[in-house]
Structure of GLPGLI family protein:
Amino acid sequence: MKIYSILLILTVLLALPAQAQKFDGGIATYQSKTSFDMDNFGGREMSEQMKKQIAERMKSRLEKTFTLSFNKDESIYEEEAKLETPGAGGGMRFMGGGFSQGGIYKNIADDVYARQNELMGKTFLVKDTLAKLDWKLEKESKMIGQYAAFKATAVRKIEQNPWEALRRNRNAEADSTAAEAPKEMVITAWYTPQIPVSQGPDEYWGLPGLILEVSAGPTVILCNKIVINPQSGLDIEMPKKGDEVTREEYEKILAEKTKEMSERMGGGRGGFRRGRG
């Protein structure tokens, strides 16, 4: 293992000068997969056949492809567009409105996070400082494609989405022994100093090299393609449209709308249907 680690370090050191001299930016492609516990979904009332059908429908929503366009200071992480299946809608559909999220823009030089979201016919520009993690650099290393990658870990608070929070509250009221949701999760990332930018997929950043892989709870994000200094397509622009709100303000608005729709539709049963989001 020591010899393997030394070879990885030598690979990085040999590659760094060449990357640093000619690096202008790049485009990385990531596959995001989220696992879902179908065994405990729907209770005893739902048959195995029905669970299987739902799992197949959810697959396209739990397995997605994203691109990260990045340079030294800025990046934007966007879902690749794909054809909708018949009957599917974009984003999360409420009765009389919808919900969708735009790409994640990060500027690490100016400490700026921005994202354009649509909520029930209204556009919001969520603009705030970058979410920061206290990364711990580990000793483990491995190859991801042609890149030497090194492990880092961090602990992050878990923020439940509004529908999950409402569901848990109802379960807690019905069953006093219901288990509480975990408060924290361990984030594991793999980064490569061979691409000397402090960027990464989703909201992740802050390591001494491009983040190639992230494991966070049921979600794994893995880079499978990188184009350095592309001839075209390296468009990084901060979203500008919509009513500007902070993350905290937007989360409050989303929670209020979710609760409102849940109450209107009888406690959330049938109050929305999920599309691509």
About this structure: The domain at 23-80+95-159+182-263 is CATH 2.50.20 (outer membrane lipoprotein receptor (LolB), chain A).
